[in-house]
Amino acid sequence: MITDVGALGAGAMGLGPPEASRGVGGAMGKEEFLQLLVAQLSNQDPLNPMQAEEFAAQLAQFAQVEQLIELNATGKMNQAAMTALALAQNNATAAQVLGKEVLAAGEGFTIPEEGSPRITVAVGGEGGSATLVILNAAGQEVGRESLGFLASGRHDLEPGRSVEGLEPGSYRYRLEVMDGDGAPVQVQTFTRALVEGVRYGPQGPVLLVGGEEIPLGDVLEIVEPAR
Prior knowledge:
Blueprint: H1 6-11, H2 30-42, H3 52-96, E1 101-105, E2 108-111, E3 119-123, E4 128-135, E5 141-150, E6 153-157, E7 169-178, E8 187-201, E9 204-209, E10 212-215, E11 219-223
Antiparallel strand pairs: 1-8, 1-11, 2-7, 3-6, 3-8, 4-5, 4-7, 8-9, 9-10
């Protein structure tokens, strides 16, 4: 007599069947389940055939397996569609910010051909005495100036003496803030730059700013250009 495959059918629902009953990838598919059911019916003991209730249970399990497979396939199709839609929306957004100034986490800024550069920072704690340090592409200090007391919160700064005599181009900066006890205060720096181009890649659009690249997902906001 062939052993009842109810337990094996349950294994198709993830209840831990023997390894021999599993297909490639470790899980029983609907084709394997159907073959197993047909084999059981063909080889059952004629003196002790499968009861109607058992057969109905087997068919119900098969239907559940098939539904799960179809739901999984539908879910994958929906996920692919949502990914394609998100990519299309990001590409459209990237095109819209071309020629505009954006703000992203970082420490870069640009000295323009005309006008004054602007730097955006967020000072933590209760604020403190601030010093702005300008660095070139090699990380060397090329300018420094005292900004006096900066209160807690976000600030848009216009460097003065620290950028005098520097050529237009891309630079980095560091803001050092000390409280009344001489302890450092936490500072968040931002990259503020004009979007000069957009590069589209498999991971989504990347903004070209001042010779650097900023993923669109890192952009915090679009800001008014420096004048």
